What does this fold into?
Amino acid sequence: MIVGFVFAFAKLTRLNQHLTRTRTYTIDKKSLNAGYNFFEEFIVWVNADNLKVLSSRCTHLGCRIAKAEGQELVCPCHGSRYNNSGEPVQGPAPRKLEIPDFEISGEKIIITFATG
It folds into this structure.
């Protein structure tokens, strides 16, 4: 019985390691405009003093956000809206947008997403 449990646990651990992979993107800061910059997997928000990276997937059903109205991001599927920090300001989105790991190295922004 214990051997079976240990075997199953080891198999699940390997499966989790297999499913947890990362995807890395590199963006040149010079290519970004002030305000929202939309990419397939993420959104980069830029102003004079700040830069933020947010997932482009709505937390309601995962629709891709590729549009802003004024200062708010707008989900095309069910009308959820988010501020530039990724906080929902109008539902049905239940939580804030994911914030991927990113670092700034010189003129490059390196963004890393866990996938799977």
